[in-house]
Design a protein that fits this description.
467 residues; alpha/beta; FAD/NAD(P)-binding domain; Enolase-like, domain 1; 3 domains; 13 helices; 25% strand
């Protein structure tokens, strides 16, 4: 047993884990974070949010130069792609971000224990370093924040060369001739967009009737039409039945309700979701059972069934979002320190970083109808927005949903340029329990994209000024 004893041991150095560790240290708790990877930041910073957004940004510039500059009076005689340099830039962005977390740990006196952690009992964690003997550490509290991993399906096992996961799809050495994407969710659409912009033929196979799962149907449909214009092919209500590697090609046999579809590509990206990563934690040994999805049940204070052991982020129920995990990390640390902590899940936004982007917060129309909640909807299109027209990027629509009787905001759905930035205004409005009238009466600078929210809010009361 190590002589060191902690107030809090965090297992996992991703967004939830490292933020929880920092916040706990700020509150005076002696804190350490156990992370097996060579860099802090978890999936998000190393092989998820940050590198994918770096590639989305770079590929958007390449596409923009090829297809949109001419409309602005800019002629490019030849646009060349240096994929190696683009990937190098992506890696530099990642290194800068992960290095920043190491600095924050030092600043806040959080100890980084490098290795793989497993539970021995309440208050004891055993760590296997990359080399050397196992070491046991004691702590008054333990927080599990081990995140998630891509789901692997039996009919398309990863070989990480031809049948790949999202991590592999961030580092192709050359542009695929044909990328087949299994899954029309966030990850599949974002990575499909990257490689389509860079020149690949991209085909998306989705088992459901629409993309983006439970996202507002009209919003998802609008995005799909834009992606089709960009050259992405969709096969909806289509299931993968078999994937076989033949030489340097992958053959995918898919089936609809009426026909069989044969696809051949050089890469097949399986992007059917993620699953809580709890392998090796010895949960059963300490008396913690997982649910049917492999997640750890917790109460409103993030406490598991074992006193002194808590869990946050992708290993518990809820959307697998980095910012959701961060908020849970802060709340859990504050609760462990004896203070008040809370996450307002109704105000957690979700973003898809395609182009146009999609951003949502709150409930969809489908959910409201299913729950029998009376509502009014207000819409406004980017085509009537001055800033969007000046940008030459006016494809999109905003929708606000408000309670029919109280006018309180219930849902917001946006597809358009910079939706990821624009959703913050409405997320804040949700946090304060605002009404559509509140948003409508707020002064929005002109000309800005944000004026779209004002107009959509006015449209809830059927008094939009510019449509």
């Amino acid at each position: 047993m190590s002589e060191k004893q902690y107030d809090l041991l965090v297992i996992g150095g991703g967004p939830g884990g490292y933020v929880a560790a920092i916040r706990a240290a700020q509150l005076g708790l002696k804190t350490a974070c156990i992370e097996m990877a060579p860099a802090l930041g978890g999936t998000c910073l190393n092989v998820g949010c940050i590198p994918s957004k770096a590639l989305l940004e770079s590929s958007h510039h390449f596409w923009h130069a090829q297809h949109d500059f001419e409309a602005h009076g800019i002629t490019c005689s030849e646009v060349k792609l240096d994929l190696k340099k683009m990937l190098q830039r992506k890696d530099e962005v990642v290194q800068g971000m992960t290095g920043g977390i190491s600095f924050l740990f030092q600043k806040n006196k959080v100890e980084w224990i490098r290795g793989t952690g497993s539970l021995v009992q309440a208050g004891v964690v055993e760590v296997q370093p990359a080399s050397g003997d196992r070491v046991r550490y004691q702590a008054r509290n333990i927080l599990i924040a081990t995140g998630s991993r891509p789901i692997e399906i039996p009919i398309a096992r990863f070989d990480h060369t031809h049948i790949v996961d999202s991590t592999d799809a961030l580092q192709f050495e050359k542009i695929p001739e044909h990328l087949i994407v299994i899954g029309g969710g966030v990850i599949g659409l974002e990575l499909g967009s990257v490689w389509r912009r860079l020149g690949a033929k991209v085909t998306v196979v989705e088992a459901l009737d629409g993309i983006l799962g439970a996202t507002d149907t009209q919003t998802a449909s609008f995005l799909q039409k834009q992606l089709i214009k960009q050259g992405i092919t969709f096969h909806m209500a289509t299931k993968l039945e078999e994937a076989v590697v033949k030489g340097k090609k992958v053959r995918a046999r898919c089936k609809t309700t009426t026909e069989t579809l044969e696809l051949e590509g050089d890469k097949l990206l399986v992007a059917v979701g993620r699953r809580a990563y709890t392998q090796g934690l010895n949960l059963e040994k300490v008396g913690i059972a997982v649910d049917s999805a492999g997640r750890i049940p917790v109460d409103t204070h993030f406490a598991t069934s074992v006193p002194g052991i808590f869990a946050i982020g992708d290993v518990i129920a809820g959307p697998m979002l980095a910012h959701k995990a961060e908020e849970e990390g802060v709340a859990a640390a504050e609760l462990i320190a004896g203070k008040k902590g809370h996450v307002n899940y109704e105000a957690v936004p979700s973003v898809v970083y395609t182009w146009p982007e999609v951003a949502t917060v709150g409930k969809s129309e489908e959910q409201l109808k299913k729950e029998g909640i009376p509502y009014r909807a207000g819409k406004f299109y980017f085509k009537a927005n001055g800033r969007a027209k000046a940008m030459g990027d006016a494809e999109g629509v905003a929708k606000l949903l408000a309670h029919k009787d109280t006018d309180r905001l219930l849902g917001a759905h946006l597809v358009g340029p910079l939706a990821s930035e624009m959703i913050a205004e409405i997320a804040l409005a949700f946090e304060f329990g605002a009404s559509a009238e509140d948003v409508a009466r707020a002064v929005h600078a002109h000309p800005t994209l944000a004026e779209i929210w004002k107009e959509a809010a006015l449209a809830v009361d059927q008094r939009s000024l510019h449509s």
